[in-house]
Amino acid sequence: MAIFLTKDSKVIVQGMTGAEGMKHTRRMLAAGTDVVGGVNPRKAGTRVDIDGRTVPVFGSVRDAVDTTGADVSVLFVPPPHAKAAVTEAADARIPLAVVITEGIPVHDAVAFQAYARARATRVIGPNCPGLISPGQSNAGIIPADITKPGRIGLVSKSGTLTYQLMYELRDIGFSTCVGIGGDPVIGTTHIDALAAFEADSETDLIVMIGEIGGDAEERAARYVADHVTKPVVGYIAGFTAPEGRTMGHAGAIVSGSSGTAAAKKAALEAAGVSVGATPTETAGLVLALLAETPGNLA
After folding, report:
1. Which residue ranges are tagged as binding site?
2. Binding region for CoA
3. What amino acid positions are annotated as catalytic residues?
4. What pLDDT digit, counting tens, does each position of 17-61 carry?
5. I need a surface site. Which of 116, 122, 188, 262 has the fewest CB within 10 A?
6. Residue 103 region, left (φ>0) first, then alpha (ψ -120 to 50), else beta?
């Protein structure tokens, strides 16, 4: 099992024929992803050869879905076109849209998130690395060769920290790693991923990575306390960030005690989450929990 993305997922790439789209389509195919098509209205009807695999290009998401049965779209489109691209995917009733694009205006993100939600399209992102179910499928830009299949679930605001935890725990492996993005307005949240991992019979432990700014982690802590029975290990990026200054992701701003790493750490620990001070210490907490429950993730 995995969450949101499995070996049976049929993936299309909006913006596949651009430089970034081609580069990461090649990587997704190499990871075993079933990429069944690309979307570019100007190149409809053409085909692209990628490392021995011929991938058709469709004029619209609807055409791609009708022809291939695609159920996931990965979007590599410029920020000004992201709203239209997500709207098109939602109109085609794509169940999962993974928006890699960064720099999307907040008002556009608000509009397409609401539009997609009303049409039962789950959005991951924007400004995210996507998600990977190692050994099954990879939708986005997460390196596929830094870990292996296992029974840890990972949800993270930070792409870089996603990769670091995947690498540090590579000997254990992951069911699914989800990079939800750190913009102020995102689709899939920590809570959405926590709920999915809790329901997944092949995820035994959850790692949750947050960062300063906002109250998403505090809300996730309340959810863990009320609904999650599996062990959760957390990490909050930004302990050394100066108060009142925007840091990194557009959503990371601290005002007073609200949104600080210390406040988030306290909320998570009150919910029974073990929180590391560094990514390496966080990985160590995972290993310690596994040592307490031998055979749990074998």
Report:
1. 17-20, 43, 100-102, 163
2. 17-20, 43, 100-102
3. 249
4. 999 999 999 999 999 999 999 999 999 999 999 999 999 999 999
5. 262
6. left
